[in-house]
Amino acid sequence: MAKCQSLFTRVVCATHVMRVVPLLALTTSLGLGAAACGGDVTQDTVVDTTAVAVETTLAAEFPVTVGDLTLEAEPQRVVSMSATATEMLYAIGAGDKVIAVDNFSNYPTDVESLPKVDAYQPSVEAISALEPDLVIISYDPGNLVEQLNALSIPVFAAYAVANLDGAYEQMQQLGALTGRADEAAAAVDAMRGEIESIVAAVAKQDPPLTYFYELDPTLFSVTTNTFIGSVMAQFGLVSIADGVEEGNDYPQLSAEVIVEKDPDIIFLADVKCCAQSAATVAEREGWSALSAVANGSIVALDDDIASRWGPRLVELMKQVAAAIESLSSGS
Q: Do residues 101 and 117 touch, judged by C-beta distance below 8 A?
């Protein structure tokens, strides 16, 4: 079995039967939510510790302040303990400052040769030995921030975001902190422009199309209230998980509920981790009669892209748009 790359789905893919709802409170602060086995613990990770708006001082020169963090000088040795942050740093031209990354950062290929740090069980001593002047995290296991600050190592918490605006803001925050504010602004403008063009080119359906977003083979999913749900909502799509379990935006659906709701499109965010595909879905008992299966509207996503909120969201949205256009055209 392929190695899962989020805490939530790592457990799910390892057991395929274990009910991991108690983990949700822990994992939400890790990343895009519990999305797929391929990135920061989530579409997205899964309590609501999504990034909140923070005051950012965008200055051409240092010191620079983002939230409670002030950097007196431009950092030259950055440790990224977030796969999403790693992608953002390279996208804004700060990749040359990155000296180590977490064990799930696998894009771009430049990071393959860098030292790795365990994002879930990090060693303060190992991080300190790298002599960083900035550490970026998406999850604080225990009192990591406190321990690093005690060693005079600045830490920026790039927690999961709630929507696209949050993703844009976080990229700009990283730009400010690394002396790449202008580059970050340009990257955000380009990303926003591409996404707006993709969305504008897709006609919203009436009634709206519905979808099932599969986080893992045990049928955990997402509602519209999650980050990935907000992305899908840009296209007018509605999650069949909405309202299934009051107060839980990452419910585990039953096969019976999925068959009853008969989604127009099925998105698989468990391809790499859990070897799911259109073929495995069609083989599930009772699923062959689903509209999405009959129409070939099963979209195999890249687990990494599906579980991060960085610049490659453009690729995810292109896949979603293509699925809608294919269904609408009947092809």
A: yes
The rounded distance, in Å, linking the Cα atoms of 38 and 1 is 13
Domain with 273 in it: 202-329
Residue 2 within a domain: no
- Domain count within the chain: 2
Please tell me what DSSP assigns to residue 269: S
> What does DSSP assign to residue 71?
E
Residue 171 pLDDT > 90, yes or no?
yes
The residues near 257 (Cβ < 8 Å, ≥ 6 apart) are 240, 244
> Does a structural domain hold residue 45?
no
Residues 206 and 265 in one domain: yes
Confidence check: pLDDT of 239 > 70: yes
Name the pTM for this structure: 0.85
Report how far residue 74's alpha carbon sits from residue 16's, in angstroms, rounded to the nearest whole number: 45
| Residue 8 belongs to some domain of the structure | no
* pLDDT single digits (tens) 24-83: 333 433 334 443 344 454 433 433 344 445 555 555 589 999 999 999 999 999 999 999
Whichever domain contains 283, its CATH number is 3.40.50.1980
DSSP 2: P
